[in-house]
């Protein structure tokens, strides 16, 4: 069995913690591990044939770094040039199994951003599903419902098939009254979005029911190229692929669908209220994360990321603080947070796209301050890492080393700078920054000029493949 982790979501309902360039699967929301890392650890011992992740092109270095930090080796990181939903993403992994001469390989398909609290129960259900999938079935996991939830789709169980059940029907998200009826009847399960089947069976069913998706993905995979740990598919072919979920494309049409019930403390962590539901609450029903002080507050979720957050007299409220945005919402209306994100995107606000703290393959930077014709950043460069050889048309830069050692190239001159030393890069000068040491390099960068956007970078050479050929 091989685990395929889908890590392409945007997590807009968990704004402001989740941003499009650093969405929820890469955040630590429930414990010290990120959601991706928790998912990888959860399936690592089950995955005899290894682990692969499918993600967006723009998230590739985050995935690679978080896998490395978790101590796990990935077989491949598939890069989608554009998001096309789950049916095409899974097809890429299936074509890869066929190409490697393993068409009967069983694939466990999981989202990177789900919470599963009872790992042993999850493992037991996976072993059941593996046996069923080896018999040519397409398995989905149905969560035994704990409440009449209106935020999930449902699966109605059909006749028993060993420890699994035939899928009688997939049902869209119900209203409250219908959800209660499903719960009372006892033969409905939440649709988890987790699957298991062999590569060849999935491709055969996809080709039968959605030949357009099959052909587009076949062409995209055939035009693939490898770049270190990344596998890029053909951009033009994949862009032409229809956007469709595996549920609609295959599972709702096939006669081979079965469902394995799962009761393992599962949540898709789809909103801030979900984190309140699964969190450890105090005597007043509050869940707090970070430096939080609450007085006469009940049934609320408060998350502080960068400073003290204090509340007085709140009930059923969500408060989420980051270093550049604060969300305050009625806990019953947190699904509407995505409307805030849509509004921010329409106004081209950075808060919809990235945090003040921005991750790069060489390290991170934090935008400390900015104003008319200036910007200040704190930059951290990992040991052995190097920024691209580049130049700027509109800005000059001053670098002051806080700690570590910097190897700086300016034009045809190279110098070594240590703590409290500085240098200046004029407008239009080709330059590069490298950390030759064994500890992180920390420096302050002061930019000045008529335009300070990140797109004013002309790269000439880059070890991370970001320079034009």
Topology:
Elements: E1 2-6, H1 35-44, E2 51-56, H2 60-69, E3 76-80, H3 86-99, E4 106-111, E5 115-116, H4 119-133, E6 138-143, E7 154-161, E8 164-171, H5 176-185, E9 188-198, H6 199-209, H7 211-222, E10 225-227, E11 230-232, H8 235-239, H9 246-251, E12 257-262, E13 266-267, H10 272-278, E14 287-289, E15 292-295, E16 301-304, E17 309-312, E18 317-321, E19 326-330, H11 337-346, E20 357-360, E21 363-371, E22 374-381, E23 389-391, E24 395-403, E25 406-410, E26 413-417, E27 422-425, E28 431-434, E29 441-449, E30 458-461
Parallel strand pairs: 1-2, 1-4, 2-3, 3-11, 6-12, 14-16, 15-17, 16-18
Antiparallel strand pairs: 4-9, 5-13, 6-9, 7-8, 7-9, 8-12, 10-11, 18-19, 20-21, 21-22, 22-29, 23-30, 24-27, 24-29, 25-26, 25-28
Helix pairs in contact: 3-6, 3-7, 6-7
Helix/strand structural class: alpha/beta
- CA distance, first residue to last residue: 38 Å
Mean residue pLDDT = 95
- According to DSSP, the number of beta strands is 30
* Biggest sheet character: 6 strands, antiparallel
Note poorly predicted spans. none
Give keywords.
single chain; 34% strand; 469 residues; 5-stranded mixed beta barrel; alpha/beta
Explain what you see:
This protein is an alpha/beta fold and 469 residues long. Strands 20-21-22-29-24-27 form a six-stranded antiparallel β-sheet, with no helix packed on it. It has a five-stranded mixed β-barrel with strand order 6-9-7-8-12. β21 (363-371) and β22 form a beta hairpin. α3 (86-99) crosses α6, α3 crosses α7 (211-222) and α6 packs across α7 (211-222). The longest helix is centred in the N-terminal third of the chain and has 15 residues, at 119-133. The two termini are 38 Å apart. The mean pLDDT is 95.
């Amino acid at each position: 069995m091989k685990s395929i982790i889908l890590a392409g979501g945007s997590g807009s309902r968990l704004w402001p913690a989740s941003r499009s360039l650093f969405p929820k699967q890469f955040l630590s929301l429930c414990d010290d591990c990120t959601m991706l890392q928790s998912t990888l650890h959860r399936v690592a011992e089950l995955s005899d044939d290894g682990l692969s992740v499918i993600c967006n092109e723009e998230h590739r270095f985050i995935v690679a770094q978080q896998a490395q930090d978790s101590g796990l080796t990935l077989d491949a990181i598939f890069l989608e040039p554009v998001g096309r939903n789950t049916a095409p993403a899974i097809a890429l992994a299936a074509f890869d199994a066929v190409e490697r001469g393993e068409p009967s390989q069983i694939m466990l398909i999981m989202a990177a951003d789900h919470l599963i609290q009872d790992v042993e129960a999850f493992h037991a259900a996976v072993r059941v599903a593996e046996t069923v999938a080896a018999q040519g079935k397409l398995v989905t996991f149905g969560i035994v419902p704990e409440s009449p939830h209106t935020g999930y789709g449902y699966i109605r169980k059909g006749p028993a098939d060993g420890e699994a059940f035939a899928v009688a029907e997939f049902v869209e998200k119900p209203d409250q009254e219908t959800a209660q009826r499903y719960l009372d009847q006892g033969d409905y399960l939440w649709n988890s979005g987790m699957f298991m089947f062999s590569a060849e069976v999935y491709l055969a069913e996809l080709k039968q029911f959605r030949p357009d998706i099959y052909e587009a993905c076949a062409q995209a995979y055939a035009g693939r190229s490898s770049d270190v740990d990344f596998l890029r598919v053909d951009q033009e072919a994949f862009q032409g692929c229809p956007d469709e979920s595996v549920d609609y494309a295959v599972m709702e049409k096939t006669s081979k669908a079965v469902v394995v019930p799962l009761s393992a403390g599962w949540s898709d962590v789809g909103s801030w209220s979900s984190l309140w539901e699964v969190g450890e609450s105090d005597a007043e029903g509050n869940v707090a994360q970070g430096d939080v002080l609450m007085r006469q507050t009940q049934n609320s979720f408060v998350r502080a990321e960068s400073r003290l957050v204090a509340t007085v007299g709140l009930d059923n409220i969500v408060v989420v603080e980051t270093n550049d945005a604060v969300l305050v919402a009625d806990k019953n209306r947190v699904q509407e947070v995505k409307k805030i994100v849509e509004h921010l995107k329409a106004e081209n606000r950075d808060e919809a796209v990235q945090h003040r703290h921005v991750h790069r393959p060489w390290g991170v930077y934090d935008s400390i301050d900015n104003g008319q014709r200036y910007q200040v950043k704190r930059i951290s460069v990992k040991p052995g890492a190097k920024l691209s050889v580049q130049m700027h048309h509109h800005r000059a830069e001053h670098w002051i080393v806080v700690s570590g050692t910097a190897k700086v190239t300016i034009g045809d001159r190279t110098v070594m700078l240590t703590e409290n030393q500085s240098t200046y890069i004029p407008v239009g000068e080709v330059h590069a920054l490298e950390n030759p040491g064994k500890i992180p390099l920390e420096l302050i960068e002061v930019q000045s000029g008529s335009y300070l956007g990140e797109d004013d970078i002309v790269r000439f050479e880059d070890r991370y493949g970001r320079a034009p050929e």
